[in-house]
Write a structure and sequence with these properties.
By secondary structure, the protein is α+β, with helices and mostly antiparallel strands. It is 19% helix and 39% strand. It contains 3 helices and 10 strands; from the N terminus they run βββββαβββαββα. It has a 5-stranded antiparallel beta sheet with strand order 1-2-3-7-6. A 3-stranded antiparallel beta sheet has the order 8-9-10. A hairpin with an 8-residue loop joins strand 9 and strand 10. The chain is globular and about 50 Å long. The N and C termini lie far apart (40 Å).
Length: 140
């Protein structure tokens, strides 16, 4: 990354850097993988590149279908340029099989296929350990 660019934020999966244009940012995808709110960590070479390319394809699909996004374009295979935006602190987890926290919080064995996809919404806040949100809690 260019030495003139300032690191604005670093999370578990991405780094956000300043851009020459103050209305834009550079999003760099990391090869890091985490589980259980980063209690388990590993690195997988190429993960950042794969995540970046998949993410760019999703953004391009949304834009082609009239849904505005902050995506401007790829910078390289593991970073993209985006409009600077205010982030909504939510984490969306889509589950087709039971793994991780759903197994810790229920009696469902790991690897169990779910009859219907389960969408969990979490409030992204490390201090609160990313609590699960419900429809009623979202209204608060």
């Amino acid at each position: 990354m260019n030495n003139k660019l300032k690191l604005i934020y670093e999370g578990k999966a991405k780094k956000i850097f300043s851009h020459e244009d103050s209305e834009k940012v550079i999003i760099e995808f990391k090869d890091d993988a985490t589980a259980f709110n980063a209690l388990k960590k590993a690195q997988f070479k190429g993960k950042g590149e794969l995540n970046c390319l998949i993410t760019s394809k999703i953004f391009k699909f949304l834009i082609q279908n009239g849904i505005p996004t902050h995506f401007i374009g790829l910078r390289n295979n593991n970073s993209m340029i985006a409009q600077k935006v205010r982030i909504i602190p939510l984490e969306i987890v889509l589950r087709n099989k039971a793994y991780g926290s759903i197994c810790k919080q229920t009696t469902i064995p790991p690897g169990t296929p779910l009859e219907e996809p389960l969408i969990d919404i979490y409030f992204k806040n490390d201090e609160l350990n990313d609590p699960l949100l419900t429809k009623n809690r979202i209204r608060l």
